[in-house]
Every structure is written in C-alpha cells, then in structure tokens.
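Hey, can you fold this one?
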Amino acid sequence: MTLPSSLRPRHRLSLTWRVIALNSLLLVGLVVLFTWLGHKNLTRQFQDSRHEHHERQQREIRLALQRSAENLRQLAGLAAASPRLGPPLKAGNADEVEKALASQWPTLQLEAGIDEILVADTEGRTIGRWGSGQSEGNLPIHSWVQRVMNTETPIMTLRCTTNCQQVAAVPVLVDGESVGLVVLTRSLADVTRQAREVSNAEVALLVTGPLESQSLLEERKLEPWNGYLLALTRQEESLPLLQQASHLSSISALLQSPVQLQDRGQHIELSAVRMDEDSDGRGNGYFLLISDISSQIQAINEDTQTLMGVGLVGWLAAELLLLLILLRPMARLRRIAGVLPTLASGGFDDVRAAIPATCHRLPDEIDVLENTTLSLSRQLEMLEEEVQERGDQLAERVNELAKERDFVNSLLDTARVFIIAQDNSGRISLVNDYTRAMLDLDDPSLLGRHFVDVFEAGLPSPVSTFGIPQQEERTLHTPDQRLHTIAWYHAPLPSGGDDSKSRISVGLDITERKAAEARLTWLAERDPLTELYNRRYFQDALQQALWRDSHGAVLLLDLDQFKEVNELSGHHVGDRLLREVAETLLLNLGHRGVTARLGGDEFSLLLEHADADQAIQVAQHIDQLLESLGFTAAGRRHRVTASIGIALFPSHGTTPADMMASADVAMYKAKESGIQHWHLLSRSENAKDELQERVYWVERVRSALAEDGFELMVQPIMRLEDRDVKHYEVLLRMRDADGSLVSPAAFIPVAERSGQIVQVDRWVLRHSLRMLSQVQDRGICLAVNLSGQSLHDEGLKQYLAEELAASGADPHHLILEVTETAAVTDFSTARGVLQALRDLGCRTALDDFGVGFSSFHYLGQLPVDYIKIDGSFIRSLLISPESRVIVQAIADIAKGFGKQAIAEFVDQEDLVPILQDYGITYGQGFHLGRPKALKETLIESHKIRGRGTPRRKLKGGG
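Sure. Predicted structure:
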C-alpha cells in the first residue's frame, strides 16, 4: 500500500539499520579481538619455540666445547705419557726432549688440529716447543707448573686474546714424580664449524676485554660491546647486523634473550652463547648466532590474515541473515512510526487508511501496536471534536478579556513613570514595563516584595493610611549604580467588596531636575576652576557677618609672580597651580572660615571672631604652607608665595565693598614690603596710602588724555572654521616715561573710581574710529570695550554719532563690548544704551559671559550680536567636566537666541576642535594671536589672517 506524501517518513537512520550497525560493530569488534588473540598466541608460540631453540643451541655449543676440551686433554696425556719424554725432561736435556715428541707432532698437527706443543721443566723453563710459538709469551707457564706440581692434576682452560684457543696442561711423571709439564693448544675452528651446523645460522666469534695486538682490523671492533670479532661467516651481510645490534642491546641482555632485527625486508634473530671464562680473566669469548626467521614471521602473518578473512566472511553472513529476519517486522514498525506524527496532527482518516485492519491467528507485538493505534485514532478524533467546540467558546471570552487587558497594559506600559500596585500589606502586586526596565528585574523578582524594600528612604506607610492620598520622595539605586530621586503619588484603589485596602503608586523620576537645581546652586556659589566659593558667595558671607555685628578679619591673597608661571610654563600650568593653592588653603584653613577665589590669582579668607593677632598667625601659617608647596612643572620648580592683606571688621569697614577695598590696599602694601608677605592695615594708613595712590594715577591718566599718552593694541579674533582674521579687539596701554607700556590693571581701577573712565572710553573710541576708516574697505572690524560707567553717559550716543561722521568709519564694522556684570547690574539702562548703539548701525557684544549665572535670564532681552565666553571656563575645558557642561550650555543658549559665540583665552591647539564641536564660531587667545600695536597689526593684516601658529597666552591679554 502506498502512503500519502504527508505520511511518508523523513530520511533518517531507521531502527533496522541501527540494529545492523550496532550488531556489525559488535561482530567486527569480536572478529578483531579473536584475530588479535590468534596473532598474539601464534607470536607467543613462536617466541617460546625460539627460546627453546636458543637454549638447545647453547647446550649443544657448550657440549661441543667440552668434547673438544676433553679430546685435547687426552691428547696432552698421551704426549706426556711418552716413555721417551720423562727421563730427558728430568735431566733437562732439550735435544732428547725434542726427539721424544718429534715423531708425534706431525700427527697431532694434521689430524688433531694442534696449534702448538710446549714442554716445561719444574722451574717453568721451556725445554721443547713445536708449532707457531705465538703462545709462549702469553701463557702463564710458571704458575701452571707450580699448580701441577702441587695438585698433580691436568689443567684445562680457554684463552682468548687475539684469538680463542683451548689449552691443556698435563704433568709428566717419572717414577710417580712430576718432572715437568706438557702444554697443548688448539683453536676453536672445529667448534665454530659444529656450531654453524647445529644452529643452521651464521656464526661469529666475539672476544671482549683488553686486546694486546694492534694488528686487528678496525672494522671488526664493536665499541658498545668493548669487543672484537675474531671470526665471522658471511662478513658482508653479518657485520652490519652485528654493528646495529651492538647499539640496540648489551651483550649481557643478548645472553638472556635473542634480539630481532629487520634488514632489507628480512627478519633476523641474533643470540649469544658464552664460552668459559679465561682462567686469568684477560678476556671473554662469545659465539654470536645470526638466524633468518623471515619464513616463520611470514607464516604467522599469513595465519593472522586467514583468521581475519574468515572472521569478516562470518560477519557478513551473520549480518545478511539478521537483515532477512528483521526486514518485514521492521517495515511494519516503520509504517506505524510514519503515521504517528499524522495522528498527532489530526490526520485520523489517513492513519486508518495507512494501517490495514487485519486479524492474525497468532498475533505478535506489532499486531497489538497496530490495533491500538487504530483505536487511539478513533478516540482522539472524538476528543478533538469536543475540544474544538469548547475552544471556540473559550476563544470568544478570551478575545473579550484580551481587549480589556491590552487596553489597560498599553496605558501602564507606555507611561514613562513608575506604576506599582500594592496589596493591603504593602507588597507589590503589579508593575509596568518602565519599572521593570529601570530596575532590570522581572515580575518574579518584584512581585510579593515590600514597596519599602525596593524603594529606599522614607518611612513605611501605615496600612491605616492606604485610604488617604499621599505624596513623598524616595531614592532608588538602579542596577547601573546610579541614584535616582523619585516623587511618589499614592492613591487608594477601590476594594473588591471586602475590607482589605490596597493602593496604586505612581512615581516620577525627578533626578535630573534635582541635579540641575543643585548644580545651578553650586555654580552660583563656586569658582569652576578651584571649586572654592566665588566672589559673590564671599561677599554675601561677609555681609551676613557685618549684619550680625560680629567682628573678625578678611585676608586677601594675591600670588606673587603668577604672571611668570603663565609665561614660562603656560596657562594650563597656572591653572594647576591655582588648584593646588586652593586645595592647600581649604585643607588647612577650611575649618577656620569661608575660603574663596575672587578671580585671577586672588584668594580671600573670612575669619569671623578673629582678632588681629589671630589673623596675623593665620597669614603667617598661609605663608609657610605656600613656601612648602614645592610646585614643579615640566622640570621647572616654581617658588609659590603670596602677598596677604589683612583688614579687620568693623574697624576697616562696615560694608563688604569697604572691607574688600581695605584688604586690597593692605595686600598691595604687602607686595611692596620686602620684609614679610603680609600686612595688617591701620586706620590712618588706609586713608593716607589710598589717597596718595589715587592722586598719582589720576594725574597720570589726566596727562595721558591730554597728551595722547595712551597706546592702542589689538588682538585678533579668529574664525575657527577657516582660521580667517577680520575681527580685532582693541586693548589699551599707557606709555611710560622710558617708553615701556603700562598694563591697564595699574590705572583702569583708579580711572573708574575717579570718574575718568568715561573720557578714557571716548579717547579709545576716537582713535579706533580713525584707524577703522583706513582699513574697513578690507572687511576688518574693530571691537572696543566700554566701561560700566559709560553706560550711564547720556552723551555717549551723540558723541559716537559725531565721531562716526567725522572719521568716515562704517558703524557696521564697529563692535562695542560691555561686560556681563555691568549689563546685569543695571539691566534697563544697559539695554537702552545697547539698543541706541545698534540704532547707529554698530554691533554689540557681551564680554566675560558666564561669570554671573543670573544673566541667563536676561540674555534674550539684551540687544547684543556676540557673546564672549569668559576665559576661566575655556582654560579649564580640557580638564574640567563642569566647564565643558557650562561652555556647551552657553554655546547652545547663544545659538538659540541667534547670537554668535566667541571663546576667550584659547591658549592651546587642543581647545580648537572642542570649540568647533560645540558650535562656537570665533576664538581669541595667545595661541591664535598675541596683542600687538594697532598700526603695525592692521597694516600687515593680510599676514595675520593666515597665521595660526600655537603660542602661549600672557597675563593681561585674552
């Protein structure tokens, strides 16, 4: 019967072939095992037979040696018994002795193979000798004579030196008394020939020990065995085998068991038979037997192959028989196995069609399996119909519930807030996807836990309060080790009819808002570079102390030679020095009062409840701390000192401004003093010195205004995108009597206090406009700083309009800068003045932006075109994450209000790509261009526009 395609089994290894494969593995394993056992048994039998053969060879060779030795002894006895030998030997008559044995020598030599006959008297002297005569010097005749005389018994021995000889020494008796000795020697040639005949092998005679002859062939020496081959049959074939065997086995091991070798496809067996030792131990002799056993080995291999072949034939026959037995039953099993998947998938008709309903007289297990399968198909068909009916009913209900569930889940899971349901004991019963994602936990890890175990801080809410809406804040540690602040809103859930209470909690992550609030608070009170309190916080703290009618001291520190540190090592080193000084002051004096950085290299300390002596002690301690700082940069050591001004309150002032002015005067007195680094201001000294200093600089400023004693400098403001320069900032210097230039820091503060700063601003405007009219056709713009007092100059707009008309300068090429502090201090006035300037066609800029964070609110309302970011943030941009955040924020705010940003104090090339990435258009600093004389710079402006060489920034310029 042909099965439908759905019932046809997939290609796989059927049970029949698995049984055959396993049975084959077993039978093949048994065949291999029996073959190996047969081969091993044949090999063992062969080894046993070779061992018996070796022992038999040893016995026969030793027996041959014994027979040869006994024969030699008999011949020696016959020679000694000659009646003609005894009397002349006793008389010492050598001629008669030679005559006595002369007739026997040819017979002994030719028939018995005797090599030599020696006759010695009782003194060991040789009376007669027949043969080669080579043994006389090698034989211990004297000791043998003594031994024979004492024992009257023959001596039999084997001598192996340059050759191996059997020796027989027999006493000569006359009237029962030993009168001398007869010695016969014979080589082992006959014994060697017998050994070859007995063993049917090649024979070699090996002698070991010291060799006295130097005429032996070198090729027959076997160094590993310390021996020499005296005799060797078939030398060309046997010698290489013996040389190979000498490196493979010792002679002692060869005596115990033969060694098998392979040579040119032949199997060779080498064995050794030891002869009796030399009586005086001068050398040992061995018979080496070389047998060809290739035929026996080949016979063993052939028998093994026969066993293997018979086994494989038996295996094939058994497998064919097993296949014939299993073929039909396994076909029926395959048919049942093929329809079972169809039965599982609901093909009941196909199953009944595939399995015939037959009845056998003697049913077997397969018949039972087929009948059971048919019965099971009918039962499953009825169950499926019933399940289908109930499933349709259940599906309708499930669809209704799924719609409700999906609607609720979509509300819960799309909300970006924590949503948690709690039961009446405060345990979590439901969470949304956002909660699981934030906690990185699944439902089994969350459900059933107490709410307060997951969300820390706060106290557990009593169950009695579950019915009351509540609000609270809790902290949460997420798996990424971040701490979040969550604002929770708890509301009761309607009960299901029982008295149990439950509630739903919705949490909003307010971490970023909290961090922003804390950061803004910190930035408003702290100096970004040193993280000390800033000027604003210090003045507020001082104001609070004065309001409390407290007393104390203000210490104002100004680092000495800080300008040289910047010039020699760079501003980044100067910033590091400022941070180290700040850290030293905070670590050692932070507990004494408020420590702040006022700006630049100025620091201040507020010591409340301190008198003059205590303030002096603190100043001296500061001096010691700075002296021991040991600041080193780029291999250059800088000595750190500071000038410290001390002012007491309320003695030297009742307002923060008065106190800071008094401390400033005291600090300058300390700088002028060469004795000590601190100075405590007295009442009279305060007024007098300040008046003298002010009068001096007021006169210098008045004279410079009248005589044009000022010098204008310009510093390029570079467009970072292409390093183009068409924008310069005008800087003011005063010419001294010797022609040197005086920094504005020396006279600008005095001009501001004396009111001369307005005239100074007008002088700068007038001379800048004259130069602008000469270079504006090249697209060059000049930026001029206006003081805070000029914002209150009612005639500024009229004066600027007249000068523009007189000079012919284009107002669009003039940029007027005001500081952020001045603009925010009097916002309404500043906005009016800036708008008036823009009405004339001028552009405006907000300088030193970022120092006061309150100006963010007013930035959008100030009519300015440029924002100049304060240099303190730019200099620390590479090392301070806070500065990067602030600069990025300022750049984004400027862009949002449609204003262009200018970065001040760009003192290294690494800052340029960061500023460009932040979207900052312009940069100004010593790296981009140093301040130079106005006329010199603008005449050669085409050279400046192409300059971008990195240069270090100097104090006093941007």
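Residues 532 and 866 are 30 Å apart (CA to CA). Let me know if you want another pass with a different chain boundary.
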